[in-house]
Design goal:
Largest sheet: 2 strands, antiparallel
Strand content: 5-15%
Oligomer: single chain
Shape: globular
Number of helices: 7
């Protein structure tokens, strides 16, 4: 799976905004804190606003605030809002792909991959990223032999 810069920036921006207890956070402060290019961040924040995750406040004390509770927004939600479906094959959803019967089993593989991704990405929320406390089953996956090694 490839995580785009847009998804990475969106998650980092949400964590930064969710951490702000005192009120709105400026895009400039988010960009500086997370080392995100400001123009790119503006586009990401627009996607997050359209998804209903954040809202902007105008005025001198304006900025960005959470529009939903961080515990109700999963990583999968953010990926879908910024990049589309978790798994797509040539731009199609896995269940819509049509293969020649000789390789039709590939569709089952893509469905299984999506299921595996959902097990992690739908069960980690922005609130958990803010707290640094992952669900135990997700955290356990990081201690398995070889998972930190690229192959």
């Amino acid at each position: 799976m490839r995580i785009s810069a847009k998804v990475d920036y969106a998650l980092r921006a949400l964590v930064e905004i969710a951490r702000a207890q005192a009120g709105p956070v400026s895009a400039e402060d988010v960009a500086l804190a997370q080392d995100i290019p400001r123009n790119f961040l503006q586009a990401v924040l627009s996607d997050l606003r359209r998804a209903g995750f954040v809202a902007s406040r105008r005025g001198q004390a304006g900025g960005w605030v959470m529009a939903r509770e961080p515990g109700t927004i999963s990583i999968a939600d953010v990926i879908r809002a910024t990049d589309g479906p978790l798994v797509s094959i040539h731009g199609q959803r896995a269940e819509d792909v049509q293969y020649d019967p000789s390789v039709a089993v590939l569709q089952w593989v893509w469905i299984a991959v999506r299921s595996s991704l959902r097990e992690v990405l739908e069960n980690v929320t922005i609130a958990q990223l803010v707290s640094g406390e992952l669900p135990s089953d997700v955290a356990a996956r990081t201690s398995e032999t070889g998972v930190w090694e690229s192959r």
